[in-house]
Write a structure and sequence with these properties.
The chain is an alpha+beta fold. It contains three helices and ten strands.
Length: 192
């Protein structure tokens, strides 16, 4: 029989938890050798401060994610422009858009940084005049400039990446078709 150290109840031999209060009856206790090893291991570690990678604020409004992965920008002043309707009539501290009622919480956007004097990547989207090309590219949510750099935020369209469909054509094994004509093509019945 073992006595529970938490409630004093008598428990049968071999029980791991008290029948009365569910406290562990024989909690794990490290041996003196284990404690000595742990103390020596901790003492031998060099005190290396962890680098605090706080998000960087860009243009006073967007927090940029640190790290090596894709750049993400969080809009910490979402009231400036409603993500749902584009209204700019909201005031600081408002939690919901006064125009459409959308929640104005901090939102994350895919982003890209480029030099302002030599834009590249998504920063070039606004310079494209071809409407067909623009229809395939991600929509720009906002652009901000600071310190000779341009931050371009991309609106999440919810669409998967664009790929041109391939279909068999008479006289050639494959031909490319436009996404507009792909919707009108019907599969032919299988030959049996």
């Amino acid at each position: 029989m073992s006595t529970c150290h938490a409630c004093g109840a008598e428990n049968r031999a071999g029980a791991r938890f008290c029948w009365s209060c569910a406290a562990p009856l024989n909690p794990f206790r490290p041996s003196e050798a284990d404690r000595a090893w742990l103390a020596a291991s901790l003492a031998s570690l060099e005190e290396t401060p962890m680098e605090e990678q706080a998000p960087t604020r860009f243009a006073g409004r967007y927090e940029l994610s640190p790290g090596d992965g894709p750049l993400t920008a969080v809009d910490v002043e979402p009231w400036r422009r409603c993500w749902a309707c584009g209204s700019t009539a909201n005031e600081p501290g408002e939690a919901f858009c006064t125009n459409c009622g959308a929640a104005l919480g901090n939102r994350s956007y895919r982003a890209a940084l480029s030099p302002s004097d030599a834009p590249s990547g998504p920063a070039l989207i606004r310079s494209i005049d071809d409407q067909a090309a623009l229809a395939l590219l991600p929509e720009i949510w906002d652009q901000a400039e600071e310190g000779g750099r341009t931050l371009t935020l991309l609106q999440d369209s919810g669409r998967s990446p664009v790929s041109t469909p391939l279909i068999p054509a008479a006289g050639s094994p494959w031909r490319r078709i436009s996404p507009h004509s792909a919707a009108s093509i019907r599969p032919s019945p299988l030959n049996t």
